[in-house]
């Protein structure tokens, strides 16, 4: 379960004023949902995702992901929260001097897993994204779509119940974007809750799901067919 309950977020500007990005927004996602977050550049899509992995806290209201609530969480719990969810960003953020395998394994070692478990989870995650055969390749030897598959493998290696994705297809051409979207949809069908920020209305129409639009500081659920 994911929810925003009357959430407002403002940022302080260098001139001493503050800018409200979202104001009193609310939404609820069920465990079985897939949802898009759409809106113009600067409307606050990344900010809402950041509230969910608690990289930032609401000024008003409550953000909740699973059992973790922004108003009740202790700072020491945040690493556990982040281990329970998967996160994918637009810029690939792969370690350039590590193979695809090591990029995924590295994230698992960081959570304190044993070598044998790291190996089995890494192989499973790379297989799920269709990239096990390229596990020894370095990022520069992989296409943009393949690099994004490694990022997704890294995000799902810990078997999270939910995947948060911020413009996961943003740097990819339409054919490759479709392939990545099909992978995300298949992960959702296999049981993962999916919440994804995107600019790409073409993808939203082609792979329809619950759609929330951010505009003028408000969040409303819309019919993806209306885009
Ligand atoms: N740490 C920060 N300090 C000040 N302003 C910020 C900060 N983070 C975000 N903002 C501002 O908040 C607004 C919303 O940013 P956000 O990145 O959430 O938008 P977005 O919808 O994800 O945009 P894009 O589609 O371009 O990624 C923007 O005007 C941005 O400049």
From TrEMBL:
Outline the extent of the ABC transporter domain. 2-227
Q: Which PROSITE patterns match?
A: ABC_TRANSPORTER_1 (PS00211), ABC_TRANSPORTER_2 (PS50893)
Gene3D superfamilies for this protein: P-loop containing nucleotide triphosphate hydrolases
Q: Which domain of life is it from?
A: Bacteria
Any Pfam family hit: ABC_tran
Q: Which GO terms describe its molecular function?
A: ATP binding; ATP hydrolysis activity; transmembrane transporter activity
PANTHER family the UniProt entry points to: CELL DIVISION ATP-BINDING PROTEIN FTSE, IMPORT ATP-BINDING PROTEIN
* SMART domains assigned: AAA (SM00382)
From the Swiss-Prot or TrEMBL record, give the protein name: Cell division ATP-binding protein FtsE
Tell me the keywords, alphabetical order: ATP-binding, Cell cycle, Cell division, Nucleotide-binding, Transport
Q: Does the keyword Methyltransferase apply?
A: no
For whether the record's keyword set contains Cell cycle, the answer is: yes
Q: Which Gene Ontology cellular component terms are annotated? A: plasma membrane
Describe the function of this protein: Part of the ABC transporter FtsEX involved in cellular division. Important for assembly or stability of the septal ring.
Q: Family, per the entry?
A: Belongs to the ABC transporter superfamily.
- Gene Ontology BP annotations: cell division
């Amino acid at each position: 379960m994911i929810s925003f309950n009357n959430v407002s977020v403002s940022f302080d500007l260098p001139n001493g004023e503050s800018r409200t990005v979202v104001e009193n927004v609310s939404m609820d996602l069920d465990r079985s949902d897939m949802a898009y977050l759409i809106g113009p550049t600067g409307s606050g899509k990344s900010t809402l995702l950041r509230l969910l992995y608690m990289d930032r806290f609401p000024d008003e209201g409550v953000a909740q992901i699973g059992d973790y609530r922004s108003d009740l969480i202790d700072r020491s719990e945040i690493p556990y929260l982040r281990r329970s969810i998967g996160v994918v960003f637009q810029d690939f953020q792969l370690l350039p001097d590590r193979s695809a395998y090591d990029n995924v394994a590295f994230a698992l070692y960081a959570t304190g897993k044993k070598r044998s478990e790291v190996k089995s989870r890494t192989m499973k995650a790379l297989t799920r994204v269709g990239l096990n055969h390229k596990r020894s390749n370095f990022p520069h030897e992989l296409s943009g779509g393949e690099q994004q598959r490694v990022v997704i493998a890294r995000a799902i290696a810990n078997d999270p119940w939910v995947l948060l994705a911020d413009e996961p297809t943003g740097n990819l051409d339409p054919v490759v974007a479709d392939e990545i979207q099909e992978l995300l949809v298949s992960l959702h069908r296999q049981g993962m809750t999916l919440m994804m920020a995107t600019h790409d209305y073409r993808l939203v129409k082609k792979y329809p799901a619950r759609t929330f639009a951010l505009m003028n500081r408000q969040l409303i659920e819309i019919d993806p067919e209306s885009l």
